[in-house]
């Protein structure tokens, strides 16, 4: 076991990890941050997306030890301390961008990465960027709407069907 | 996943020393290796992470070649090669998905030589030189069949030098579940020759389509490919596409790549 230290959502965090401990397991089981979901555990579904040093990664396909010293952001750090949702989370709620909610942490974290790179993405760009995030409820349409709204764009431009 | 130790060297020399241990294995971005370990298809006793080696990061232009550090991520190539080698930047930006591109590396992709990966086609079509800790290997000699290269045990890809062509284009027919190429064709036009490399099609892995190269070298237009085809024998077949389908598709994609590059 090795002691692994990183900054998680702006706060220092430290715990023991084996060589094989995945970042997703480290966050969930050692730090108790179970908002990061493990859907497929094969890097297909994107429910486990977190940011490491400012970029989106699939935390089920990165070793915890590789995040030593890194700045990690998870879904738990997205809302304000008093629980006020951030603009992306609020848009997901307003536009019904979640059904069962299992994929939502990854969807929100991928969206945050997208809007950092591209503050006003087109519908096509949104769909391409979310290629690695799978919604098992197939609720993509409202997710795209929510992201259009979160980026301050006209949601009515998206077809109803 | 069986347990293993992880070492994080900060220089190529330290990485090579760490890899001399029994059952040590290099870890690039881990986007193929970690899933492989989860399935217990590999069980190294030690992983040597290459992601903390500064001298294997980034890219530079030198003598008409784009030289990319072996540990450079697909996302970095997609963002930073747009001016120097746009077809390569587009290829890198089409690998996997954004999160995968932030971790996966060019050196890891070439060393793994997945028969449906994109980078081997770019390296072969660009007449790349693959630089390791020990030697320089021409791309034409580097790939050695499915998931096999001429890399020795413990040898790592430290840099990839891709000759920048006058014009180039990569056409990838995406297998929608894996996002690998069902078939992918990279066409690169140089002053004195055209190189055409095909991934995702052959049972032998990435290969050059020499008949198309000869035809395109004298007439760089899609019309020059009229009547040319690759025999279905030797193509891969799976539930996504038969041998004949892949053979046909690679002809279509080559025409599209030439039309887009011309």
List keywords for this structure.
heterodimer, A: about 160 residues, Ubiquitin-like (UB roll), DNA polymerase, domain 1, five-stranded mixed beta sheet, 5 strands, about 30% helix, about 15% strand, elongated, B: about 260 residues, alpha+beta, Uridine Diphospho-n-acetylenolpyruvylglucosamine Reductase, domain 3, Enolase-like, domain 1, 3 domains, five-stranded antiparallel beta sheet, about 25% strand
Give the proportion of residues in helices of chain A. 25-40%
Distance between the termini of chain B: 48 Å
CATH class wording of the largest domain in chain A: Alpha Beta
Cα(first) to Cα(last) distance of chain A is 52 Å
**Tertiary shape of chain A:** elongated
CATH architecture of the largest domain in chain A: Roll
Q: What is the H/E order of chain B?
A: EHEHEEEHHHHHEEHEEEEEHH
In CATH terms, what is the architecture of the largest domain in chain B?
2-Layer Sandwich
* Number of extended strands of chain B: 12
Query: What does the main sheet of chain A amount to?
Result: 5 strands, mixed
Computed Rg of chain B: 18 Å
Strand arrangement, major sheet of chain B: 4-5-8-6-7
**How would you state the average pLDDT of chain A, rounded?**
96
Lateral arrangement of strands in the main beta sheet of chain A = 2-1-5-3-4
- The CATH superfamily of the largest domain in chain A bears the name Beta-grasp domain
Radius of gyration of chain A: 16 Å
Proportion of beta-strand residues of chain B:
15-25%
Textual characterization of the structure:
Chain A contains five helices and five strands; from the N terminus they run ββαβββαααα. With 161 residues, chain A is α+β, with helices and mostly antiparallel strands. Chain A is elongated. In chain B, the strands form three sheets. In chain B, strands 4-5-8-6-7 form a five-stranded antiparallel sheet. By secondary structure, chain B is an alpha+beta fold. Chain B contains ten helices and twelve strands.
């Amino acid at each position: 076991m090795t002691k692994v230290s990183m900054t998680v959502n702006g706060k220092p965090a430290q715990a023991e990890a084996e060589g094989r401990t995945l970042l997703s397991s480290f966050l969930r089981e050692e730090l108790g941050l179970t908002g990061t979901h493990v859907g497929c555990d094969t890097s297909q579904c994107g429910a486990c997306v977190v940011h490491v040093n400012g970029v989106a990664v699939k935390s089920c396909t990165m070793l915890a030890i590789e995040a030593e010293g890194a700045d990690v952001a998870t879904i738990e750090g997205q809302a304000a301390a008093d629980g006020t949702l951030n603009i992306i989370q609020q848009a997901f709620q307003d536009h019904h961008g979640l059904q069962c909610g299992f994929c939502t942490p990854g969807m929100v974290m991928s969206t945050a990465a997208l809007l950092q790179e591209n503050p006003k993405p087109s519908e096509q760009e949104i769909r391409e960027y979310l290629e690695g995030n799978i919604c098992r409820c197939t609720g993509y349409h409202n997710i795209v709407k929510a992201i259009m709204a979160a980026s301050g764009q006209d949601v009515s431009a998206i077809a109803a069907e | 996943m069986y347990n293993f130790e992880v070492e994080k060297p900060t220089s190529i020399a330290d990485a090579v020393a760490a890899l001399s241990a029994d059952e040590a294995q290099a870890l690039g971005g881990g986007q193929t290796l970690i899933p492989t370990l989860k399935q217990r298809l590999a069980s190294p006793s030690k992983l040597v992470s290459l992601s903390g080696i500064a001298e294997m990061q980034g890219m530079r232009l030198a003598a008409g070649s784009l030289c990319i550090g072996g540990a450079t991520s697909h996302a970095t190539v997609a963002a930073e090669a747009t001016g120097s080698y746009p077809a390569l930047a587009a290829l890198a930006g089409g690998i996997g998905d954004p999160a995968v591109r932030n971790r996966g590396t060019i050196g890891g992709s070439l060393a793994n030589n997945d028969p449906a990966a994109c980078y081997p086609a770019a390296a072969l079509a660009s007449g790349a030189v693959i630089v390791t800790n020990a030697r320089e290997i021409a791309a034409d000699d580097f790939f050695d069949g499915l998931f096999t290269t001429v890399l020795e045990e413990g040898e790592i890809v430290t840099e990839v030098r891709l000759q920048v062509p006058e014009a180039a284009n990569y056409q990838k027919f995406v297998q929608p579940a894996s996002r690998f190429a069902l078939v992918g064709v990279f066409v690169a036009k140089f002053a004195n020759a055209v190189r055409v490399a095909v991934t995702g099609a052959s049972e032998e892995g990435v290969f050059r389509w020499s008949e198309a190269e000869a035809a395109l070298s004298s007439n760089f237009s899609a019309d020059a490919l009229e009547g040319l085809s690759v025999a279905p024998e030797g193509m891969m077949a799976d539930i996504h596409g038969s041998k004949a389908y892949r053979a046909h598709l690679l002809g279509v994609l080559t025409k599209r790549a030439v039309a887009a590059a011309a």
